[in-house]
Write a structure and sequence with these properties.
Length: 262
């Protein structure tokens, strides 16, 4: 067969092969199992979110666009965090106060850092209450070292200070395994790791003039676990739990608002 004919056939088969590959359905990336069935299902169900909108900027985009600027003299405060914040009905627990909820269930500090400017800074609050870290420990967006979680916390504080926003860092809440449904969330969040991160947050606040909101100390029992009557699933506060947190949050906010501007 002539050389030119051979080359033309080779190129034709190569192009046909590329076309066939392009027409095949895209393969979903595999996620390594964690050993926790519910977490594996949750992560598998969020593959599209990880790829398309890691920080979930779309969640509050419309609400942010329609939120009016703070009125003159208004001490707007943004509550920023994961499901514990997301489920907190601020208008019921803090009636009449200009508190804005920007929690997203399941989020880690890596995701929160992506959306911090849009969901906090752009709303022009006087202060932000950050409650995060439990999902980092659980590995919701993959394994992460404590040092990297700490760096995310520090970055959030740096951005807030650069924009004259006072920061309240909340402790990570304790967890318990007193009920059947609490056993897996508890296993994902070793109490020793929660304690270590809380020690770092508290120390960071002391060194940087940041308000530390110590929910942990008020919610932990004599075994070092979350008090049984504060959460049915061992992780998310119930009505009793949130009622306990309200005056503590209010006191921390007042302290932050009375502090010199960062």
């Amino acid at each position: 067969m002539p050389y030119r004919t051979t080359m033309r056939l080779t190129c034709t088969f190569f192009l046909l092969g590329l076309t066939a590959l392009a027409q095949q359905p895209a393969q979903s990336p595999s996620i390594p199992p964690t050993g926790f069935p519910s977490l594996d299902r949750w992560r598998a169900g969020n593959v599209a979110m990880y790829a398309d909108d890691f920080g979930q900027l779309s969640r509050y985009r419309e609400a942010n666009a329609t939120l009016a600027p703070p009125a003159a003299g208004e001490n707007r405060v943004v509550f920023f965090g994961d499901s514990i914040t997301d489920a907190w009905k601020l208008t019921e627990y803090f009636p009449g106060k200009p508190y804005v909820n920007r929690g997203i269930s399941g989020q880690t500090t890596s995701q929160m850092l992506v959306r911090f400017h849009q969901d906090v800074i752009a709303l022009h609050p006087k202060a932000v209450v950050i409650l995060a870290g439990t999902n980092d420990i659980a590995g919701n967006t993959g394994p992460i070292r404590d040092e990297d979680i700490e760096a995310n916390f520090a970055s959030l504080a740096d951005i807030a200070r650069a924009n004259q926003v006072q920061v309240v860092f909340s402790s990570i809440l304790p967890v318990h395994n007193y009920t059947e449904r609490s056993k897996e969330p508890f296993a994902q969040r070793p109490p020793a790791r929660i304690a270590a991160l809380n020690d770092w947050i508290k120390d960071y606040c002391a060194k940087n003039g940041t308000v530390y909101l110590d929910y942990f100390r008020a919610m932990v029992d004599e075994k070092g676990l979350l008090k049984r009557d504060l959460a049915e699933d061992g992780l998310h506060p119930n009505v009793v739990g949130y009622k306990l947190m309200v005056p503590m949050a209010d006191a921390a906010i007042m302290k932050a608002l009375s502090s010199p501007k960062p």
